[in-house]
């Protein structure tokens, strides 16, 4: 049986990963010194230059790698490489759920694996994070005790800090620092554009027959208007001005 890093590499069948390597003329994905230092400082473990790295890594592949390696280390064998996967604690689900960046490397106490989840220009979804936390809890029921020590880190720009407090206290302890997740800042280009479906007046709607191209700054304004509409009363919105009153009426017409 190959070692843990070999298993991770052999399960990686992400076409975009290999296309990226081919397009850049590289044989493998290597982390920059600056990124390794940033990640090392946050998780408290030095990430070596030779660390294995992969993108968009499926959690099914991760689960299979962990189980196969741990059973090999324990001297257990399963006929035909068929492993148990039953009940509510299934670790292989057949879904496309993945992790944005996987980093793994050997150390004196076994192997360390760092799972990095990133968010760019959208908000963090607590339901999505909770789903991954529950899944990772099943994949690593005894973190650090079976030769594999997992780490979890979020990455986003400074204006999109991840959830904290009671929202993350149900995560496994290795995924967080008390009441907040491990987090590194992700530098993003400031000038970006997006597209959204709208009606002919420019109001967002799933049934819109028009679309609108907006800049990142426009998106920030739109989110602020949406929150004010959702939290305020119609009378309160009416008193904020003619523009908001028109916006409220248009939103109501799209419901």
Task: Write up this protein.
By secondary structure, this protein is α/β, with parallel strands linked by helices. It has two domains: 4-185, no CATH class; 193-253, no CATH class. It is built from eight helices and nine strands. The chain has helices at 4-11, 15-24, 33-43, 59-73, 126-139, 216-231, 234-239, 242-253, and strands spanning 52-58, 98-107, 110-118, 148-156, 176-177, 180-181, 183-185, 193-198, 210-215. Helix 1 runs antiparallel to helix 4.
Q: Share of helix among residues?
A: 25-40%
Q: Please mark out the parts with pLDDT under 50 across 5 or more consecutive residues, or reply none.
A: 218-255
**Structural class of the helix and strand makeup?**
alpha/beta
Strand content: 15-25%
| Count of folded domains | 2
* Count of helical regions: 8
Mean pLDDT: 82
The main sheet orders its strands as 1-2-3-4-7
The rounded distance between the terminal residues' Cα atoms is 58 Å
Spell the H/E element sequence.
HHHEHEEHEEEEEEHHH
Got a strand count?
A: 9
How is the biggest beta sheet arranged? 5 strands, mixed
Query: What general outline do the C-alpha atoms trace?
Result: globular
- Give me the Rg, rounded: 23 Å
């Amino acid at each position: 049986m190959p070692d843990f890093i070999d298993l991770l590499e052999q399960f990686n069948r992400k076409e975009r990963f290999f296309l990226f390597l081919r397009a850049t003329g590289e044989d493998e994905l290597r982390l920059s010194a600056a990124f390794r230092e940033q990640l090392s400082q946050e998780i408290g473990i030095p990430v070596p230059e030779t660390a294995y790295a992969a993108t968009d890594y499926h959690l099914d592949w991760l689960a299979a790698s962990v189980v196969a390696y741990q059973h090999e280390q324990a001297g257990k064998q399963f006929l035909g490489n068929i492993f148990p996967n039953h009940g509510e604690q299934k670790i292989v689900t057949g879904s496309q759920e993945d992790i944005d960046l996987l980093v793994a490397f050997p150390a004196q106490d076994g192997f360390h694996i760092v799972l990095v989840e990133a968010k760019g220009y959208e908000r963090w979804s607590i339901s999505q994070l909770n789903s991954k936390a529950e899944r990772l809890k099943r994949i690593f029921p005894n973190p650090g005790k079976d030769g594999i020590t997992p780490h979890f880190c979020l990455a986003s720009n400074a204006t999109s800090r991840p959830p904290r407090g009671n929202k993350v206290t149900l995560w496994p302890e290795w995924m967080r620092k008390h009441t907040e997740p491990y987090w590194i800042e992700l530098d993003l280009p400031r000038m970006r554009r997006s597209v959204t479906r709208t009606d002919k007046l420019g109001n967002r709607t799933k049934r819109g027959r028009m679309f609108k191209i907006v800049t990142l700054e426009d998106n920030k304004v739109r989110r602020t208007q949406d929150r004010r509409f959702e939290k305020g009363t119609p009378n309160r919105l009416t008193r904020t001005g003619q523009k908001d009153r028109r916006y409220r009426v248009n939103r109501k017409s799209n419901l």
